[in-house]
Structure formats: structure tokens, C-alpha cells
Write a structure and sequence with these properties.
The structure is a homohexamer.
Chain A: E1 6-12, H1 16-25, E2 30-31, E3 40-41, E4 46-52, H2 53-61, E5 67-71, H3 72-78, E6 83-88, E7 98-105, E8 120-123, H4 126-135, E9 141-144, E10 159-164, H5 168-172, E11 175-184, E12 186-190, H6 198-217, E13 220-228, H7 232-237, E14 246-249, E15 255-263, H8 264-276, E16 280-286, E17 289-291
Parallel strand pairs in A: 1-4, 1-5, 8-9, 8-10
Antiparallel strand pairs in A: 2-3, 5-12, 6-12, 7-10, 7-11, 13-15, 13-16, 14-15
Helix pairs in contact in A: 2-3, 3-4
Chain lengths: 292, 292, 292, 292, 292, 292
């Protein structure tokens, strides 16, 4: 088994449930135990380790893990030299990319990164912040923040570098975004040596394919409908080009059936048009995965 | 944007979640904020306002809203002059029409509306109740009830006019239904002037189409099965006429595939019969929307 | 109605929700009331009674019930003489067969059932345990346990006969499994006289068919994909033989569509292979029921 | 029993729990049943009825109730002619008097009640609002609001008359308080005829005494301490005059013990001073009721 | 330690929390672990075992336990020969004695125990029921009920023997109480041999004293007040004789202080009378334990 | 107000609730808002700031805060030079001192700190750990752990320095304690300059006095009892010397009353003895604060 085991890091904390759910949809059943950092998985070729997202890249680089799921931000923060297998682009609103931003009080004099010279900055990402300041040739004190960073200015610090999705927590604390430091999404990363092993690379590519087929299906639905052969062209023109629609013959030679995949958000606009164009028996159905 | 904005009232309170869920299924994402009565919606042509069902018709009639979702009962109660775009008929048990009924204690002498002469009646729908009494030529005191109406007789009042779905709350309070005052379902209503605007009428009709396609799909499922061409007629006869089944050619010319939509409640009776008639590979699958 | 009424026992307690959910999927809506042991069901030909799994077989044998859902273990425990209509084999992990096992403290001298001679055994299944001892010709004291049986050895008793799914509760109490006494799954059982009535037998067989079609669909998904006619054979070879795939003609004569049902757990292995073999437009969709 | 029964209204809704808790502290055990509006009480001379605070005064005036607990605001709103037995002044922060205020959008032109002429006002207290407008000689439309009144300006109405404790909900909706319409606390009210009955008046006065002894004890604590007779005067001077401290002789004739009641909020200032003045063995203990 | 260890059974299940809370008030801190039936206690001379109330008497009689807390009903049911150290009489409403009663459907012909001849009875207390029937010379089938006994008549059995506190569950199932079979309270029981050991008897008596001092204090409060020496007699006459009031000299020789313990339920009647009789500075305070 | 304002840091996170509760008992009402790090306090001379315990000492040293509540461990970790006003010794089990310990896997070869040479250690207290290693002249890699430190050995690191109360989390992860690095309790710390200000020092000393009077009262109760003067000596000898008992004269010259404070945990042993010695009317009552 030695050669055929992939050591895979699963992020603990806020990403844990979303990751396990994505794997579950992809067909892998991961179970966490409160007493172990080895979650079980129903694939004998994988051994999972539960590790904080912040520490994932470090352990992947060191080879303690073959691969892991973590945010791009923490890869950059730790400066780890790892291979990125794929980006996991979530389409749902609640899974937008996160942004690390430089923020200051609304009424601060700081208008750009240049104004930070000699100031004090709190952040959970000290490495990231120092790289950013260096890139702009600015000298400032960067102190590690144990949390609740957004409540610190102006009393405790002059500025912060903090992660945000919608900016609402910043606004609620009367902070203004000065600059974006980094945009980050979730990634499947691998140890560079491990990825040179054919079996491990193939295994990781298959995992990536399945995870991405689930992500691709999020916010999408299937649509089946019937149409007279004479109306077919008009109906096909009304469908977006997301995926080639499947047109099949019905036993009545004057009719065909169409089966296609649509973004859930366009269905409300397309269905009235399809009906107008002659489609009948329109049925929308849920889907789990799509692979083009 | 002025001409292309539909001001739509979403009912606050008990109907809020059901309405938002129905819109979500129809492809519209409505989000409520605890600090605003302007829920956001992912359609730039719609502006939502969160308003109590009881007050909806009043504000639609006044033109403060172009349209709104509310119960037929509150349209009648307020006597508002509005256009009804469509009824939203829910098929699920928990979404039955509600009934406003005249109820009295089990051992009351009141046997019909005529016996209310000179009595005291508590209700949350004072207007509705007065119209009802007037129609029957009865004079009685109608007092507004702030709630818990069903516990008031006989100590505080002689009778009540109260809304009920299953009658269980009335029975639990030892009340007997004397008469039905009004049956009510949910409606999409529009301001009459607004509905004369072509763009708004078209927009409302499309919304109505999508909402109804979701309601039509509730309690329904898809069924796919294969059958020998020689058994086709027998199998088709066993299917209810809800929607024309789609019959498609398989690569084996002796077989065809059938795809159809059924009421979930008849599936348990139909599947054994279909199997008897020669159907194989029967698979039931969930659906989201249907438009005939 | 007298001849056309099936009296059906629904297990109260831990099996209640799972049973009601299975019936719901099968198209029967069972509703429990906190004040009655007659749950309602939306089938006028069935009258449900809510009865403890332990007592089900007794009341079915006596004819107070025509049929009921219970565990095989309790049928054996009570020694009831009933007809088994079908086994309800759940495929999900959380619904594995349960096992009644003989367990002793890790450091006990008891190595086999033979070592129980003269010992004291606690169990909730006194009948089952006595049968088991008798079969092995062993004399021992069997005392009824009101619960928490697994904490009793070694202080209160020498051994226990206890139900387990994963064995984790036994391990946590430092107990070792000596022998399996009985493996048990859920069954639909019928009174023998009742099952000789044609109408009741037919009704029970239909119920069994629907319940089993839902169980068969658990952990399975549908897969639809398109393939060039020239790649068809290669693709079909890559599909497991769970169910005959449906191959249908598309309007483009060079292509066919395939629709099939797969175990969710093999999808992750099959999709990469299908894609390799030329499949396009692969879509996985959820299903509710399958009947071969 | 007829002459010796006090019919007492207990407010349903938001005041119910606080009222029951106050009675419980006062030694009366009230129990609510979900199926009856007659809560039980462990005093055979009292019959409780659960009634909405808004309707309490109406039913007390009509004599359906002898007495009831409700807010002063609803007495005024309904214009009921009742006897006020006592005010129930809660000292805790969360039980401050409520205020009905006239509020308008922050950027409204309305600066005083005079500016309401011809405007539209939403409120749950239509009677109160009309009295207020009349007192100021202003004509305006007052419409009944079913709730969420504070979100209505400016879109739906020009101003509101709404109840508030801290004003935070108004601020959150960008509303500005223009005027206070009424400040209101909880009251024990009685029917005027009932209060002329000696037994009922005595009963109500005793209830009032007990309720007030509990309210008086809220936020207060007992303090016991020992002091040399020679330091007594100095120590006594350091104690606030809330209640005459009890000074008792100890067996050691040089020492006395002091026992007194203090506001919890002054203890933190007084204890350091007492200690300074020579007090020893200072112990603070909780109390339930005080009657001066 | 061997001779100085008391093995004490703590009831698992519904009595566990109440028992632990009573011990906690009495000064013993018992902690339960989900993985052990040996709860810890902060007294090195006691070893706790967590055991079902139904099985307690059996294990105390066998000497596996020196003593235990259980209901009198289960002592009778198991016919165990044990020493009763004390009854634990709870004064609170929610801790009333429980009653085992014979109950039948409201419309049953069974009017007394004599009418049970040849009938079928379900109960969780088979031993108790058989003793009861034997005492009345009645022959009937008694079957063990695994729970939900009160829903069984009339369909499954003719009568039940069931435990009840308020009778509300029986009424809700349309059952009528025919006879009381046994009234039961909680007891501290001891193994007879163990209680002959002086150390164990002394230990158990001390535990009993402390538990009872807490129970005695439930529903009681302390009252302190000052009174002129001349009014002393009148005030003392107004106090119930629960405990001799403590009258102490104040530094002002004309006044005395009274400190006494009262039932919480009489305070509401006594305080107005005390005040009338000249008492001042009346303060009610909570107490934890009383030992007369 | 400038000179008369104490800026006080309240720890956010796990200590927040316990700190607020302790202040509440001491007579200070602190309220947290989810939108601000300035909790309100009902003392105009104090301004609270909510700050993580880990960062408290840093900001107190810098003078951004005058004083703060934090653990001794974080003072050491940050090496901050601050004045310790008082230790806050909690007597309750759940508030025991915490210990930072060096722990390794049960089967590790590491037996003492000396064996750490060249090893890798994970910890949340990097400063503390480095000081500890330096003191012992050991060189090792210390890496910052973002949490879940106890699951890291042996796979990710060789040893950890981790905080523990009961050691149960370490045991559950199969770790063995090698050495104690630091024992820590909660402290009230002050900026050294601020503490030289008389007003601030006095204010902090008063706060310390009140907080400690509450802590001293935890787990203690009051006891009052009467005794014949002739039995007084015997009874007094049976009382522990925690606080001088108060002996007061009763109106009956043959009797005296005793009032004293006891540890709750000794009451169960003392009451039987007091009763034996002649005490009567023994009453235990709860207390809030004690200052000797």
C-alpha cells in the first residue's frame, strides 16, 4: 500500500464542512471524529489529515502531506513552494472569492498605501502584509492580530489588512477600503515531488475532475421539452450556448425532444421565450454533476 | 430606469418565508434584511417592499406599489379595487386555502347567522364580518380582536369570525363552526393603472408563469421507463392524462422509452400496473418546474 | 370497508421517523399525533397503529394487526409465528443490519459461549439469549436489563447480550465481542391468516414493491451522456451491469444518448473512464425510485 | 364562593412571562395552559383570565373582569374609566417605562406636531394618536398599522406614533423623535364598582402590597457587618438612608452587629468606605422582598 | 479504604438530574461521565454507581451496592428485602408522589378491580400488578409493556396499570382511573447487612440528614423584621409555628428583631398582617437548608 | 473628565462572559455590543475596551489601556512590563488555574525537556516556549500553531506546549505530560505610570476589593443557629476558623444566636456535629460577597 496512498489535507475550521460537503457530492464520504485528526474516507487509497487552512501549505511543502485543500491567501502568506492542481471556483453567492484589503477609519487621512509610512497595522496575515508593503516601498509596523481585527482602528492601530467577502463587517465598524491586497479562492495544492509520481498525479487529477463537475453543476438545472421539428431551429436559437443541447427523435416523426442544461438564473427569462417559440411539456429537473 | 421598475410588495410575517421560497424556486433570489423593508432581489427591474399581508391591498390600490402578494381575504377586508393577476394554488397539504368561519361555543344556542342579532362578535377581520352580517340583514356588535380570538367565547363574546385551516384550534377551544364566511387563497394582485402599462403587465405575467410552473411541479415527479413497442399501447393506457407522455425511439428498434410527469400520490398505484403491463427499467426522478 | 382495510403496525420509537420517511418516499403520507396511537395515512384502505417494535410481532400474530414493520430480532425474541412479506434492505451506512452480540470485559476469562456456564448475563432480549444458551447447552442466569446494559460488566454481571451497529459503544466500555447471537434487519411481517386473503396479500405486495423501489434508489444516481455511435460499444463496456442502459437515437444520426443508473459510490471511478472513452455532455441527476 | 372571587386579567403576549414571574416572587403560582385562557393560580379566591394587554382595560371597565394588569398606554388608548390600584414600578433596566413617540425620517421637514397638518400617520395606537393631535389642534390622517410601523416612513407614511424603550429601533430605521406622546408604565387596574366591594378592595390592596414588595427588592441586597461600639456612629453615617439599619447587641458588649438593605449599585462604593470606617465581617446576601 | 467505602447507587434516567441536584444542594458534587457508570463524587468515602431506578433495589439487596436512591414502587415491584433509611419528601409541585393506578377506557364496563377477571392488562410493573390482583383474588393476563402503555386500551388491552402524577396523560387518552394500586415516593434504601455496620449506618444517616435539610428548605424563605417590644406578643401570635422565631435584642432597648422561617406560600397572607401588627423593616430572604 | 477616566481592558473570547459575570456580581453592569469594541459600563469613570486576552498586556504596557484583565500566561508570553494589581483566584472547579505543559505522544522517547534538542514543537505560546527552552539550554524548532495543537504529534511535530485544565484532552489524544511550563491564573494588571496616579490606583484597588469579595463568597454559605449559652463554647469549637462567628444576645437571656460563614463543602460535615452539640434552628442561607 505504501506507493498507493495519497496523504490529503482537509482544512479544519470554517472550510471543513464546505469541503466535506463538496467531497460528498463528488462521491467521497469523509467522516470526522472529535478525537482524531485523521478523518475517515471511503477510499482506501486516500488518507485524510485534518489541518488548519493556515498551516496546510507548510505541511504540503514539507512533504508531510501529498496534497491539500486551502486558500490561495495562505499559500502566499506562508510563501510555500507547492503545485496548484486546480482552482475550486464556487459559483454560489456565499462562496465568492475572499479579498484581503487594506482598511482604515472612514475619517482617516490615509488615502493610499503610501500614507502608511511609519504607521501601525494589525493583521492575521503578517507575511502577506509585509510583502505588500515591501512591493510599495513602505515602512510600517505590522503586528499580529489574534482576531476581531476590524474593531482595532483607530484606537489600537492606524490601519488593518483583513479578509472580507461583502465588506459589511468593515462598514459596520466605520472602516473604508483603501486598497485590495490579494484576492483569494480555494485551491487543491500538491507537493511538487508527489505530483511527479504518475499514480498520485492521476489520482489528484481525477479528484479535481469530480470536484469541478460538482461545482459546475451548482446553480444549474436540466430542462427537457418537446418541439415540432418545424419549430426546432427557433427553439434552439433561444437556448444559451452553455452546453450543446441533446435533440432526440420521438416515435412521432414530426416531433423531437430537447434536453439541455441551463443556469438557474436564466431559466426565468428563457422559459417564457421557449413557450412562445412552440415548446411544450417543458420540465425543469435538478442535476448533481456536469462534465462537458 | 423610471419606466422599467416594478414595485412589488412581499408579505411580511407568516407568509414571508413561503413567498421567498416560491420565488427562489422560480429563479428569483430575495434577501431580507432585519434593518430595512426593502428586501433585495436579483432582478434590476423589480423593487421589493416588505409589507404586512393585511395592508398590501391598500398600498397596491393607492399605487404606492405596482403589485403584491397577499391573501384574497385581506383584499376583501379592505375593499380594495385591484387587478388580480393570478391565483397561486398550492397543492401541498400545508398550503390549503384558509377559511374564515363563524364559530360559537359547542353548547351555544346560536345555530345560524340569523341568531347573531344583538350579539357580540370578536374578529381580526372587522370589515369582512360587517359585510357578512349586512348581507344577511343581521345587526350585531363587532369588536376588533388583537389575537387569541378563539379563547374568547363564551366569557368575553358570543361568537367569533376567525381564520382556520384544519379547524383543530377551534375544536380544542370547544367551538363549533356555524357558517363559512369566506374561503381565501394567495393572490398576485396589481394596481389597475400599472397593469395597463404593457411592460408591467408583461413582467407580471412572466412572474406569474414562473410561480405557477413551480406550484404545478409541487407534489409531482418524473417517470422514465422502457417498453417493447408491442406493449406500448397497453402501457400508455395505464398512464393518467396529466401531460402527454414523451415516447422516444431507442437504438434497438423493438423498444421505446417513455418519459412522463405524474402526481406523486398516484405513483404508488401506477407503478405496479406499469410493471404488470411490461414496463422495465422504471425510474422516478424529482422535478422543479413544469409548463404545459 | 370491513373487508378492505389493512391494519398496519408502524414501529414507535427509534424506527418511527425512518419508517415514516420511507413510506413518504414511497408515496404514503403518515402523520403522527402526540395524543393518539392511530397515525393518519393518506390511503383509506390502510389503518395505521403505532406500536413498539418489541411488541409488534406479538400483536401481528394475535391478529390485532394484519401486518407491521419490525426488526427480525424482535420476531425471534417473541417467538411469534408470522409471515415475512419482505426484508427491507437499507443500503445506507447508517442503516446497516444490527447485530446482537455476546460481549464480556476485555480482560474476562470468558472466551466462548461455553464459558458462560453458571454466569450472570444481562440483556434486553431475554428470550433470544435463552434460546442461544439452550442451543449451546449452557446454563446461566439471564436477567432483564432496563437499559445501559453495556456499563454493567464486570461489576453487576459477567456478560451481556446487546445490540450493536458499529461496536463503538462496546469498545468505549472496554467490552470484547465473544460471539454473534443474531444479525437482524427490518422486515414487513403479516399475520398468516391475513396473508391468505387475496386483497390483503396484493395490498401488502404492492406496499413492499414501493418500499423496495425507494430502498433500491438510495445511494444511486442517474447518468445521461451523449456518444458517437462509433464509440458506443467502448462506452457501454465501461458501465457496470446494474441496469440495462437505455440507448436512444438523436436527431444527428451519428450520435446516440445513453441514460443509465449507477451506484453513487462508483461514479467517481466511472466518469473519468467514460470521458476517456469519448462520452460528452455527461450529466448526473438524482433519482427517487427504481424498479427493474 | 360567588362573593369571594376576584376575576383578574393577566396580560397575554410579551408581558405574560414577566407578570407571572412577578406573581411567583410574590407567592402566587400562576400556570398557563396552551389550551385555555384560564391560567390556574394557587389561590381559590382568584380566577385568572389571560387577555391581551390592549383589550384589558375594555374588559375591566365592562366588569367582565374585576381587575387586571396592563400598561397605562392601553388604558388611555381605549379611554376606559377604571380605578388604578397601583403603579408597578420596575427598577431593572429592562423594565423601564415605555414611551410612545412621534417620529419622522431624519431628513423630514416635520419639526413639531404642528407640521403634521394634512399628513399621513401610521400607528398601532389610533385612539392615543387622535387625542394627541386634537390636543394640538392638528388635522391629519391616522391609519392603523398591523406592525413593523417603524419601516413605513417615508415611503408609506409621513410620520409614525410608535412605542420605544431605548430608541434603537427608531435610529436603525433613520427616524428622529419629534415629540413624546405618552410615557407609560404597568398598572394594576380595577373595575370601579368592584373596588367599592370591601373584600375585593382588601384583596387587591394585599396583592398590590406583595407585588410592590418584590419590585422594591429588585436590585437590592442585604448587608450584615460587625463593628466596635466606638466606631458605630462613623459606620452608620456611611450608610445611605434607604432603610433604618438594624443594630443588635452581640455577646461581646464592645461590639454590635448591623444589618441593612442597600441598592446593589451603591454597594461597590459603600463597602470600601465601611471597611475604612472599621466594619469587619462584611457579608452581602440576597433578598426577595422588602416592606418598609 | 476497604472498610470505609460506601457503595451508593444513583438512579440513571429521569431521576438522575433531580438526584444530582439534591446532592449538590446538600454539599456533594456528583459528576456524570458519558463513558462510565461510576459518577465521580467529591467524598472519598463514597463510590457512586449509576443504575436504573428499576434495578436499584435488586442490586442493593444482593449487596453489590450498600445503598441507593430509588422509588418505593420499584422496591415493591422487585420484592427486594432492603432497609429504608429515609423517605425523601419533596414539597415542590413537580415532585409530588407518583401513583400507580388501574385505568380503563372512559366507556369501559370495568368499574372495579373485580371486573378484571379474565381480562388483559398491560403494564411496566408486572410484579406490582400481579400482587395487586392476587390481593383482590382476581385472575387476569398481565403483559409487560415496553412503553406508551396509555395508548393501548381498548384496542390492544382491556386495562392498564400505569404511573401518573397529574392524570393528564390518562385523560388525554380517554382513560378513567378505577383504583389506586400504589402511591410511591423516592427513598434512600440500604442493604440490611451494610446498615448493621456502624460506620456505614452513621454515614447514611448523615447523608439523609443533609438531603432532608435541603428538602425541608424547598418552598421556604427567611423573614427578618423589627418590632417594638410592646408589639412583640402581637407579632409573634401572627407567625405560624413552623419553627420557633429567634428574637434578638437591638441596641435600642425598646426594639427587638425577629428572624424566622416561613412557607413561601403563606408569606403573601402573613406580611400584610405583620405590618398591621406593627412590624417594620420586613425583609424576606432565600435559604438553602433548615435543620430543626 | 480627562483625569478621572480609567481605561479598562475586558478580555474578549472565552474569558468575556466569566469576566462580565464577575463584574456584575461586584456591582458593575457591563454590556457588550456586537458592533463595537467599547462595551458600556454603568460607571462614568470607567471606559471599557474589549480586547483579546493574548493582546491585553501589550496594550496595557503601551498605555493605550490603564488596566486590564488577562491571564498571567499572556503577560509572560508577551514579556510585558506591567503592574499586577491582584490575582483573581476562583474557587470553583471550573475556574482552576490553567497549566501550560510540555506533552509528547505516550510512546515517545522524550522523557524530559533535555530530550527536545533538535526536535520540532508546536504551540500557541511561542514566546513562553522559547523562554522555557532557553532556561534549560535546549535548542529546538518552535512553530506557531493556529489551533488543534494536541492532534499534531507525532505526525506533524515531536512535542507540543499546550494549555490544559484537567488534562483530559491530552489523554484523549494519547499524549503524556513531560513537564509543567507555567501555571497561570487570571490577573488584574495596570500600566505602571497609570498606577502612580493616586486616583487611578485607588479606583483599581476598589475594583480589586469588590471582585475579590465576590470570589471569596463563591462556594461559601451563611449559617445561622441558636444555642443555649451553656452550649455556646462547645458549638463554637465545632466551627472552622474561616471567619469570626457573630454571637448575638437573644431576648431570652439563656440563649444566643450565632451567624457565621462556611465553605459549602464542609457544611455537610459540620451540621451533624453542630446539632449533636446542641444547636437548634439551623438555617443555611446564600451569600453574595464577603470582606473580612
Amino acid at each position: 500500500m505504501a506507493d498507493k496512498l495519497l496523504k490529503l489535507g482537509i482544512p479544519a475550521g470554517s472550510l471543513q464542512e464546505a469541503t466535506a460537503e463538496l467531497f460528498r457530492k463528488a462521491g467521497y464520504n469523509i467522516k470526522f471524529s472529535s478525537r482524531s485528526y485523521f478523518p475517515s474516507i471511503d477510499d482506501d487509497e486516500i488518507e485524510c489529515l485534518s489541518i488548519r487552512a493556515q498551516e496546510m501549505a507548510r505541511y504540503v511543502q514539507q512533504g508531510i502531506l501529498d496534497a491539500g485543500i486551502t486558500g490561495h491567501d495562505w499559500v502566499v502568506e506562508t510563501g510555500a513552494d507547492v503545485h496548484e492542481v486546480c482552482e475550486l471556483v464556487f459559483s454560489k453567492v456565499s462562496r465568492r472569492p475572499v479579498r484581503w484589503v487594506l482598511a482604515v477609519p472612514n475619517d482617516s487621512d490615509i488615502k493610499s498605501v503610501k500614507d502608511l509610512e511609519g504607521k501601525r497595522i494589525a493583521t492575521e496575515a503578517v507575511g502577506l502584509t509585509k510583502m505588500y508593503l515591501e512591493k510599495h516601498g513602505v515602512n510600517a509596523d505590522v503586528e499580529f492580530s489574534w482576531g476581531a481585527t476590524e474593531v482595532k482602528p483607530p484606537r489600537l492601530v492606524d490601519a488593518i489588512v483583513e479578509v472580507t467577502e461583502t465588506g459589511s463587517s468593515l462598514r459596520a465598524n466605520n472602516l473604508r477600503i483603501v486598497d485590495e491586497v490579494l484576492e483569494s479562492t480555494t485551491r487543491l495544492i500538491a507537493n511538487k515531488n508527489a505530483f511527479e509520481d504518475d499514480w498520485k498525479a492521476q489520482k489528484l487529477n481525477n479528484i479535481a475532475l469530480m470536484l469541478q463537475s460538482c461545482l459546475a453543476a451548482e446553480g444549474k438545472v436540466g430542462l427537457m421539452l418537446n418541439v415540432r421539428r418545424s419549430d426546432l431551429q427557433k427553439v434552439l436559437e433561444g437556448l444559451p450556448a452553455l452546453q450543446q443541447p441533446t435533440v432526440s427523435n420521438l416515435s412521432d416523426p414530426d416531433w423531437v425532444a430537447i434536453n439541455t442544461i441551463l443556469d438557474e438564473s436564466v431559466v426565468r427569462a428563457i422559459i417564457p421565450a421557449l413557450r412562445e417559440a412552440g415548446a411544450t411539456g417543458i420540465v425543469e429537473f435538478p442535476i448533481n454533476k456536469i462534465i462537458d
